[in-house]
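User: Please predict the structure of the protein below. I'd like the answer in structure-token form so I can feed it into my own downstream comparison script.

Assistant: Understood. Taking the following sequence of 227 residues as input:
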Amino acid sequence: MTPRRLTGARLCPLIIAVLVTGFVGKAFSREADCRPSFDARLLADQLAPGASKDIQSLRKAADEGNAVAQFNLGLLYESGRDVSKDTAEAIKWFRKAADQGFDEAQYALGCCYNGDDGFPKDPVEAVKWWGKAADQGYADAQYCLGLSYFAGEGVAQNPAEAAKWWKKAAKQGHPDAQYFLGLSYSLGLGVPQSREQAIYWLRKAAAKGNQNAMAALLKLGKVATSP
């Protein structure tokens, strides 16, 4: 399934702290954007032909096993849009779609288990579902999986594995993954230290507006943002 990046996402906090010795000389932390959100596209083309585009039709399609409808119904319950917000129902419908191999639902389920906004925190489950979506090539999941490996959240800490997943997402154009991959090369964390590779990936991230990457390039004396 072709990866799709949802926009307007709410934050799913996953705080990591990195000692960047010789880079900025102090601990660095940031929140990871690991949360999908309802984006007003109920994907009515996936519903039965002629069905009205309302919650009843969406629920009917979800009950009949349509993974896209199940995913979007989960988003409604997750956001409280058109239905009462219900974390248990959101997880239920995300899981139904995720069990069918729907990558967005797998990613969303991982975000739920990361513990944001009243959802039960279970880092092991978060890694499990992000891993399933990441294996399908879903860039956001690859990025979040990299954060988990770097921070040791729900999985044994492994900077090399973190860099591997960041590189997969970075090659798909994920700016935050490009930034963290650039830092990894700058510091030699999980990858051989390489100023050239650090600048390469930081420039790619900066070209897409990543402010942290721009700041890192300034510290390296490389302010150009062209890839």
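That's the full token string. The radius of gyration is 19 Å.
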